[in-house]
Amino acid sequence: MISFEQVAYSYGGGELLSDITLDLAPGSFHFLTGPSGAGKTTFLKLCYAALTPTAGQVTLFGQPVGDMDRDGVAHLRRRIGVVHQDCQFLDHLSVAENVALPLIVSGQDTPAARQDLEELLSWVGLARRARALPPELSGGERQRAALARALIVQPDAILADEPTGNVDWEMSQRLMTLLLELNRMGRAVMIATHDLSLIRAAKSQVQTRVLRIARRRVQLAGADL
Ligand SMILES: Nc1ncnc2c1ncn2[C@@H]1O[C@H](COP(=O)(O)OP(=O)(O)OP(=O)(O)O)[C@@H](O)[C@H]1O
């Protein structure tokens, strides 16, 4: 579904990521870990074609990103939901309007999709906060709204960048429960996190691969986690 072949990336200085070859299968569950600044966010951006590799090839859903024009890339990116680290919202729009934005942008704003929006807000526990403005939300509510916004276009894969970064343990478990449930429904999930306790807790519930960025490479972490 997302394949890397000898991928490297540099922001202009030395190489940040080198020689990455891996395959993220449909329905798989991955964690991505590594020290701050190792390149986790950069790796995720390569996964959803927000960045183009400086060497090698990324293939999304069987199509090499390098061979596609901007429209083609934009079309494929809709199949990947992203929960960004800073989960930015438009503060003058309500939670429901923010979550619905990807529908409007992608021309999928139909009555059926609006019905899905209500169900989705209930599923993430935000039905009662639908009319709130983003600045009124708690950290955990923001993260769940960001997850709902990533899911509204029904992507095949979810990439979440430190989704539990600003929330307490109970809320991080609640978010993990949602991500595990998504995975059980068939979505591929990848979570970038520093939080090894989160990974250990999830490992008892799902078959997961843990990727670790070390010395510019993305490697499969051992059983020591
Ligand atoms: N747009 C950019 N231009 C230049 N350098 C960048 C850019 N974005 C990130 N970097 C640098 O690339 C390195 C990796 O950043 P990245 O955000 O991918 O790491 P990370 O592992 O996600 O870090 P953290 O865990 O702190 O979020 C850092 O040194 C960062 O300063």
TrEMBL record:
Q: Which Pfam families match?
A: ABC_tran
Q: Which domain of life is it from?
A: Bacteria
Ranges of residues in domain ABC transporter: 2-225
Would the keyword Transmembrane turn up in this protein's UniProt record?
no
Record InterPro entries: AAA+_ATPase, ABC_transporter-like_ATP-bd, ABC_transporter-like_CS, ABC_transpr_LolD-like, P-loop_NTPase
Provide a GO biological process annotation: cell division
Give GO terms: molecular function aspect only: ATP binding; ATP hydrolysis activity; transmembrane transporter activity
Q: Which UniProt keywords apply?
A: ATP-binding, Cell cycle, Cell division, Nucleotide-binding
Alphabetical GO CC annotations of the entry are: plasma membrane
Please name the PANTHER family in this protein's record: CELL DIVISION ATP-BINDING PROTEIN FTSE, IMPORT ATP-BINDING PROTEIN
Q: State what protein this is by name.
A: Cell division transport system ATP-binding protein
Species assigned in the record: Roseivivax sediminis
Q: Source taxonomy lineage?
A: Bacteria, Pseudomonadati, Pseudomonadota, Alphaproteobacteria, Rhodobacterales
